[in-house]
Write a structure and sequence with these properties.
347 residues, alpha+beta, Multidrug efflux transporter AcrB transmembrane fold, Alpha-Beta Plaits, 2 domains, four-stranded antiparallel β-sheet, two-stranded antiparallel ribbon, 6 strands, 68% helix, 9% strand
């Protein structure tokens, strides 16, 4: 008899996952990730560790992008070593390297000279950049690898104004994307669905940023592009689940919705969409993981791919566990108020 009861419970869980039953526990997952990010960020800020809370790139922290063109990338290792040596002689620590086209190397570094902040001393930093650029051109020409070739080193500073413009534009882009998703979901389904979708998108952004801090991924313009991609992608599974919820709520469309079994409808709807959500996410993840793997030596690729991986996993979790739970709690609250008003009228 006990064995039959156990088998019956297993069969029930397979047909209907108890998502709404444990709705409050699901919110612990993003909370724990955020707590870890704050804790590790504080540790990272210690002078003996990294010295900063997060790995902020020059797009947001301010810095210089120097493009050295006219090169033969077959000489990449030698040219990179020489450029790095010259910059080091000028007190500059390189943040990242990458190639551009078939004849350029792009070097990024913070506006710090011998660990002293020059972000607010543009004239002095510009003089150092120009001196380093001139030395790079002359010593590459003198290396014997570029006879009769015109080598150009062009430094471009990202000052406080450009940095603030980047931050403002990034915040506006993410906010507009989330607002449009809210409007679309509210029109397509109902206001509660829109609110639930907006909340889960906000949580996805927070979780993605937390994981970026934990794993020291560079925070730059690529991250903003990744966040917008995550916001757009994470809504996909949520819409599929809400569409199924709407179908299962159809019998109560013109009836008293207080009689609808919200937990049963939610859990059944999520279970019906679970396989599709898992398959869709897995196939997408495979592509992005391959991109991240082959982009190990290309910072711009890995800095774009890793946040998307974090966001896709967060989006899958929030679509299955958080969005339905939020919608269900809002519906329960509305139904309770409707019942209370009906009781008050009868008195």
């Amino acid at each position: 008899m006990n064995a039959q009861n156990v088998l019956g419970k297993i069969k029930l869980s397979l047909n209907r996952l108890p998502i709404y039953k444990y709705r409050y526990y699901w919110f612990l997952v993003p909370a724990v990730i955020l707590f870890l990010a704050l804790t590790l960020g504080a540790i990272y800020s210690s002078p003996g560790v990294f010295g900063n809370f997060a790995n902020v790139g020059i797009d947001f922290e301010g810095g210089t992008v120097m493009t050295v063109s006219g090169l033969n990338l077959d000489n990449y290792d030698d040219d990179r070593a020489l450029i790095g040596e010259i910059l080091s002689e000028n007190g500059i620590a390189v943040s990242s390297w990458q190639t551009s086209g078939n004849n350029s190397i792009v070097v990024r570094y913070a506006n710090f000279i011998n660990n002293e902040d020059f972000n607010d001393r543009a004239d002095e930093m510009g003089a150092v950049n120009n001196s380093a650029a001139l030395a790079i051109e002359e010593r590459l020409q003198a290396s014997g690898r570029y006879d009769n070739v015109n080598i150009e080193a062009n430094p471009e500073m990202i000052n406080g104004t450009a940095r603030q413009d980047t931050i403002n534009s990034s915040l506006i882009a993410v906010a507009v994307a989330m607002a449009l998703m809210l409007i679309y979901t509210a029109i397509r389904f109902d206001l509660f669905s829109g609110i639930a979708a907006l909340c889960t998108q906000f949580i996805d952004v927070i979780v993605t940023l937390s994981l970026v801090i934990i794993f020291r991924v560079s925070i730059n313009a690529s991250l903003i592009a990744a966040l917008i991609t995550v916001v757009a992608y994470s809504i996909n599974n949520t819409i599929v689940i809400f569409d199924r919820v709407r179908e299962n709520m159809a019998p109560f469309k013109h009836k008293d919705k207080t009689k609808a079994d919200i937990p049963f409808i939610l859990e059944t709807s999520v279970t019906q969409c679970l396989r599709r959500a898992l398959f869709t996410t897995t196939t997408t993840l495979i592509t992005i993981v391959i991109l991240a793997f082959f982009g190990i030596n290309i910072p711009s690729l890995s800095e774009f791919a890793l946040p998307i991986i974090f966001g896709i996993l967060s989006g899958l979790f929030s679509s299955i566990f958080l969005a339905p739970s939020i919608w269900g709690m809002l519906m329960d609250l509305k139904n309770k108020k409707t019942v209370q008003k009906a009781k008050a009228k009868r008195r």
